[in-house]
UniProtKB/TrEMBL annotation:
SUPFAM superfamilies: (Trans)glycosidases
Originating organism: Carnobacterium inhibens
InterPro entries per UniProt: GH, Glyco_hydro_1
Origin: domain of life: Bacteria
Pfam families for this protein: Glyco_hydro_1 (PF00232)
Gene3D superfamilies referenced in this protein's UniProt entry, alphabetically: Glycosidases
Family statement drawn from the similarity comment of this UniProt entry: Belongs to the glycosyl hydrolase 1 family.
Name used for this protein in its record: Family 1 glycosylhydrolase
Length: 465
């Protein structure tokens, strides 16, 4: 069976500044740099963000390798903690400007579209400690300042901008489930942070619309969408899945595409006494500064059932899990190394949801990938990792993307996480995701079988399955 894609489809891969560059020559520590400094044992093998994939020094060779495997687009992020010298004033660091200019120019010289994101979990820690991070509307203003600098400096050549990567993960990780610094558990703060990030994104979009003069320029947000499926068709499980979808998907989708938070969710949060504090002016700003384009990160679906504990026992603090429990569906197909379910058809459900409920906004798969440990198990005699499991994973996901497009979905690209194995937050280098392997001791980088396979797909704009 031939799986074909529209002309000019983006064949790319994604990383982020903090996960690839390394800490060289950085002005400030971000929240993860800081967390590693104070608690290295919280990180897999105690490997921290200093040991990223050395992109700061080897960006030329890395981009050349991306070219070699046929990528026509590459998403990374500009680090706030590198670009800005004075976080309050928003003054820029000239070395950082030179670095990001060089990266952008090198991508363009190699025929690779640079896709730039502004915040990939990496808030400068000073803003967390001094102002309470995303709990603070002052930090929202500072983010808009940083974003404006990026648009002024690089907007002549970068046409595709994204404000945030996975805002829900900041809310979940930093304010509910303790996997992002500052590891607070506070439902009310979590809800305020969700709102403040939405506001920060809208403010950055407003700034972009004022500053941008590039006729091809557009701006969006990257959301991790996790369709939530009920364990059974009982009314209780259906209600659980309905709430999970409202919280995990519709909250940021609604606010960023329509400028409106889902009314049903707002009513629930209000009834539970945790609704965010907002002003009419802010709400107007969110309403009038919606995105042009959407990035969708998809790794795994979410299976839920009705919550087993009574909501009263949670009265001390609010948690979204007041309304649903995770459900381990018997027989589900798993990526055992990572512990995530593999369910490629969810991408088709996402495509149709965007088509039918979110104005069929142009979107692309901004991350999708399979993290596997100890990949040296699959080295062949030529020293190439034979990652057939990754090829199969990508094929199956692309199959459902193509089917969505055939049915009218406006999807224009696919980015694998990640081009070159990179450092990954608490998991450090436990799971490898790249088309290209990276020996973290020698920094030798080698194209995997999937990279060679992807080159052909990108060249032919199709593959056989
Ligand atoms: C995505 C993030 O959600 O997951 C990336 O945007 C992250 O930053 C990726 O690296 C994989 O996560 P992990 O923890 O499995 O390496």
């Amino acid at each position: 069976m031939k799986i074909e894609f529209p002309k000019d489809f983006w064949w790319g891969a994604a990383t982020s500044g903090p996960q690839s560059e390394g800490r060289f020559n950085k002005q400030h520590a971000n929240v993860f740099d800081h967390w590693y400094e104070i608690e290295p044992e919280a990180f897999y093998d105690q490997v921290g963000p200093d040991t990223a994939s050395n992109f700061y020094n080897s960006y030329k060779q890395d981009i050349a390798m991306m070219k070699e495997i046929g990528l026509n687009s590459f998403r990374t992020s500009i680090q706030w903690s590198r670009l800005i010298d004075d976080l309050e004033e928003g003054t820029v660091n000239e070395d950082a400007v030179r670095f990001y200019n060089a990266v952008i120019d090198e991508c363009l010289a190699q025929g690779i579209r640079p896709v730039m994101n502004l915040l990939h979990f990496d808030l400068p820690v000073e803003l967390q400690e001094k102002h309470g991070g995303w709990e603070s509307k002052h930090v929202v203003e500072l983010f808009a300042k940083f974003a404006s600098q990026c648009f002024h400096l690089f907007g002549d050549r970068v046409t595709d901008w994204f404000t945030f990567n996975e805002p829900l993960v900041i809310v979940d990780g930093a304010y509910l489930y303790q996997f992002h610094y500052p590891n607070i558990v506070d439902g009310k703060k979590a809800v305020q942070v969700a709102y403040n990030i939405t506001l920060a994104s809208a403010k950055a979009i407003a700034a972009y619309r004022e500053i941008n003069t590039n006729p091809d320029g557009r701006i969006g947000i990257v959301l991790n969408l996790t369709p939530s499926y009920p364990a059974t068709n009982s009314p209780e499980d259906l209600a659980a899945a309905h709430f999970a979808n409202l919280w995990m998907n519709d909250l940021f989708l609604g606010a960023s595409t329509k400028g409106q938070f889902p009314q049903e969710l707002v009513s629930i949060l209000e009834k539970d006494g945790v609704l965010w504090e907002s002003t009419d002016d802010e709400m107007r700003l969110i309403e009038t500064n919606t995105i042009d384009v959407l990035g969708v990160n998809f790794y795994h679906p979410n299976r839920v059932k009705q919550p087993s504990i009574s909501s009263n026992s949670l009265a001390v603090d609010w948690m979204p899990t007041k309304y649903f429990d995770d459900y381990e569906m018997p027989g589900r197909r798993m990526n055992v190394d990572k512990g995530w379910e593999i369910y490629p058809k969810a991408l088709h459900d996402i495509a149709l949801n965007i088509r039918d409920n979110y104005d069929n906004i142009p979107w692309f798969v901004s991350e999708n990938g399979m993290g596997v440990s100890r990949e040296e198990r699959y080295l062949n005699e030529e020293g190439v990792i034979e990652d057939d499991y990754r090829i199969q994973f990508i094929q199956e996901h692309l199959y459902w993307v193509a089917k969505g497009i055939e049915e009218g979905s406006n999807c224009f690209g696919y980015h694998l996480w990640t081009p070159i194995d990179c450092w990954s937050w608490k998991n450090a280098y436990r799971n490898r995701y790249g088309f290209i392997s990276n020996n973290i001791h020698t920094q030798v980088k080698t194209i995997k079988k999937s990279g060679h396979w992807f080159k052909k797909v990108a060249e032919e704009n199709q593959f056989d399955m």
